[in-house]
## 1
Amino acid sequence: MYVERRSHLAPLIVWTRTVETAGSARVLPDGCMDLIWSGAELIVAGPDTLAHSVQNTPGARYAAVRCAPGIGPALFGLPADTLRDRRVPLADVWGERTVRMLTERIAGAADPAALLERLAAERLRDRDAEAARFAGAVVGELRAGADVAAVAAGVNLSERQLHRRSLTAFGYGPKTLGRVLRLDRALDLARGGVPAARVAAVAGYADQAHFARDVKALAGVPLRTLLSG
């Protein structure tokens, strides 16, 4: 069972997950970075370019915070591209002593997710305002369907400068980020029962075949398989 809520403290999604049956789950790329408590360890999940498969152990419980695109570097203190497509112990990022003390606090907490939320919000309180504005502007333009040239012009950068800053902020360039954000929107529509052809048109794909190719490329399975799962 998966439950999420939007934090009122910072640009975060707070989520929990309890595994009820064995098997595997597919985590799709979404441009975000997560801080996850596995019940025994704190883990950083970097921004994915492809679907990530996880094995389910019945009874396992997870609590986590998910950073909005572009916010993760301020929380973890590293450029997003250094964590791209990776799952690493938080101790490798913040240091063993700090994480050991934090692990003890979370292990004894009545609500690990709420504790993670407060911790993340505190670390994000002094984040760079200009970097946050940049991330928000780029994500907003890409979600609206703007191409890379238009996004670069909107933030007063060359396309090369935009690409370099996007690697630091999001983990990949604006073209890849745009594909990830478009797929996220399209799948929301498809899960809501919107026909695939209509999804393709609304989400900004050239046609239904283009939508199907992007699903297979980023999610690793056809749309029908993804929705049935």
Note: Strands lie at 2-6, 12-18, 23-27, 33-37, 42-45, 52-56, 61-67, 87-89.
## 2
Amino acid sequence: MSNVQNLLLAGHLTTTALLGTVVLNLLRDRRQWELLCEQPRLVAAAIEEALRFEAPVQGFRRTVTTTVTLSGTELHEGDVVFVSFASAGRDADADAAARADGDVRADGDVRADEFDIGREAFRHLSFGHGPHGCPGSQLAKEQVRISLEILIRELPGLRLAHTDITMAPTLIHRSPETLFLAW
């Protein structure tokens, strides 16, 4: 039953959240959208940058299995905690370490809070990692890739119809509540 729920709920919510945030971030900075329209080969990079910049899944509840002290807080077996990794993709120190000779400006600024589809991709936690990795991550990326390719090909003049975007009020998924577009 758990696997069915994951396929039906997580697969849909994660994919739509990713599509909404990648389109939003591309259209917020017109240069990014135009670059993607000019260079469709950057679609995969745009998806990875959206995952790094604004993970569609922001964290998970977990049950503590062993009593442990974490940053001065004692957690006991059976306690429920919320593990938030929402900002992990914007950790400038981790970014710099991951790409020691990569996309770093002369002043050492890795621009971690800037959405840039030209950025060299590095490992992020948006779909988890290792045994906790999302089994549907490749399917989600493929669905978003196809959607973006159609949008840039068929609607290169796409723009935000409203710039006052409200993000969905949830701790787990990050996506626009609504995204009104025009062309």
Note: Helices lie at 2-28, 30-38, 43-53, 92-98, 137-154.
## 3
Amino acid sequence: MHAWGVYADPLRAVVSAWKDVGRRDLVGVLAPLLAASVSGAVVGAGWVEGAVLVVPAPSSGRAVRARGDTPLVALCEASLAQLADRAGPTLRVAPALRHVRRVADQSGLGTGERRGNLSGAVAVKPLWHNVIRDRRCVLVDDVVTTGATLAEAARALRAAGAQGVVAATMAATQRTRG
């Protein structure tokens, strides 16, 4: 899993404004960060040629209705535009995942609760199965907190026959032990 930075201010404030307040004008600030993370994930996986699908984590239907869009898909597209001239595999955005049942809002849930909340909740959209099968995928989310979303989405991609799955985010929360 590759993350550009720690989920702390000022990055936290920018991600929150982009995602929760509708500041889509911040894509220009965030796209280079996600592009660097996606590039790091691809290089780290040793994928130097061929095709790689960049798969955004799915938004819940409730979130799409509330926001009126799927901001992560647009951010993935802007990030890949920044990587268009670099050497390496061809990258394509593939919004192939969906929720197959209702999930609770993850904020405020602990690690075990998040895993339980998401268990079996994500699947590859039927029309995307043939695209995903035997492909390498970079799974993208904005922030990784416990890893539950990425784990469930990776499970869904593997179940659909993805050849390899790595993850990239803009930010990761700092974990403390105690």
Note: The chain has a mean pLDDT of 88.
